[in-house]
Amino acid sequence: MYVVVHILSILFYLLGESLSEPSNKKFPENFQFGVATAAYQIEGGWADDGKGVNIWDQLAHTHPEKIANNASGDVACDSYHRYMEDVEMLTNLGVNFYRLSLSWSRILPTGYTNQINEAGVEYYKNLFSALKENGIEPFVTLYHWDLPEPLQEIGGWPNPLLADIFADYARTVFSLFGDDVKNWMTFNEPKQTCLAGYGVGTLAPSISSSGIGDYQCAHTLIKAHAKAYHIYDEEFRPTQNGRVSIVVDTTWYEPASDSDEDKEAAERKIQFNYGWYANPIYHPDGNYPQVMIDRVADRSQKEGFPKSRLPEFSAEEIDYIKGTFDFLALNTYTTELAKWTNDYEIGTPSYDADVSVSTYQDTSYNSSAAGWRVIPWGMRRVLNWIDQAYDHPEIVITENGYADDGRLTDENRIIYYAEYLTNVLEAIFEDGVNVTGYAAWSLMDNFEWTSGYTVKFGLYQVDFDNPNRTRTIKSSAIYYKNVIANKCLVNTCEE
Ligand SMILES: *[C@@H]1O[C@H](CO)[C@@H](O)[C@H](O)[C@H]1NC(C)=O
Ligand SMILES: *[C@@H]1O[C@H](CO)[C@@H](O)[C@H](O)[C@H]1NC(C)=O
Ligand SMILES: *[C@@H]1O[C@H](CO)[C@@H](O)[C@H](O)[C@H]1NC(C)=O
Ligand SMILES: *[C@@H]1O[C@H](CO)[C@@H](O)[C@H](O)[C@H]1NC(C)=O
């Protein structure tokens, strides 16, 4: 208890003039707290017991120069062998749920369902049973960026066949794990999969096809999600009674000024960034945002394409896709300013040119080690925007967090959580937004994609130089544990 009080007094001391005090309201009684991780970022065991190769194994092994310090997830936090230590940390934190992802190629080494890897299945069964023994609910993502390599060899997500192949994988895991798992998420941050993976090429599989490959990828992926949802709905929900969603991420885009142009630019940017995936699924009318349909069609025509580079959903597909969620899952970290600008010149097609909005960071705010500004009020605004745009859905925040250098006394992370969660409370109590859960990214320091091990988001530190991958508790974990236990951000909350 002394440690907690000490940390909170450091916190208040640091708050100074620039920040408001954390809210002293209590979270609603049924509010759920968790932490999040992803398979490739923590598991390691990349070739153990029959696991197949995925696109991140492939990128790290064939293009090490694309990852900071030539790092890979070959061992990562070694959770494949040390998951019981993870469960101990989760239990110590007292979380209500643990959001993790399945490694597709650990379960299906080739990506197809004709060959199931029993050792991979057993790994997840053991993990789920350890969570159950400790009263921790698993929230499971089917796809957190790690496509089996054989499926990339047939073109990856831009290939429409992937929708059915993913649906088969989904049916297999619902059937294997559905007795233990009641909260499913099909995809994590599809925008990163498509825009970074097949558009600008910064993430695996590192393909550059902006304005074409990214749209084709998204089109397949949204259909894949809908198929998985309907499979659950028809074949599993009657006996398993769980829920299915998709995690879509967004930055909040604040208009750079009060001008109508900048307001229009900010709205257009969030529609292209978030509405691209959210609208077809979460909006009562479905389909891509109209601004996106119109702008890509117009620019495609001027560029000399016979039809829009943005694929079209048929009326039947729009109906099949819309409403395929049981709650809305959101990842959000930061805020940027959006400024109106002249449309980019017609020339080489690109997603950025289709959007034609200039975005930048407000440098008066602190930056995290990931380069993202700490702007807590952006959380409240993005929650309100979503609440209004998608007809007051139930929202679970599936990721939010702060990156630093991995220090154990991590006051800035405590401030981040206290301030962002204050804005969640304000959204709930002052604005009536229906937020029912929150997951901190991340349980522990891990492999941060192309940043390798240079950027640390963990509540626990991991010693990546030690073969034991020793985990050590940070100050922020003690703070978060206290928040969960008391459903309160400060020492005492009003009842
Ligand atoms: C990283 O990998 C590249 C390409 O294989 C190699 O040329 C370079 O020497 C490696 N750098 C380090 C620090 O190992
Ligand atoms: C939030 O969503 C849940 C699930 O749909 C519902 O039961 C609850 O009434 C909603 N609460 C509010 C305040 O809208
Ligand atoms: C900004 O960074 C400084 C230096 O680390 C720190 O003292 C201050 O509390 C930080 N503020 C926020 C909002 O994180
Ligand atoms: C790793 O853990 C084992 C078992 O606890 C211990 O014997 C060994 O000394 C540890 N190794 C290192 C490098 O800390």
UniProtKB/TrEMBL annotation:
It holds the Pfam family Glyco_hydro_1. GO terms for biological process: carbohydrate metabolic process. The keyword Lyase does not apply. InterPro entries: GH, GH_1_N_CS, Glyco_hydro_1. Keywords: Glycoprotein, Glycosidase, Hydrolase, Signal. The keyword Signal applies. One of its GO terms (molecular function) is beta-glucosidase activity. Residues 1-20 form the signal peptide. Homodimer. Belongs to the glycosyl hydrolase 1 family. This is Myrosinase 1.
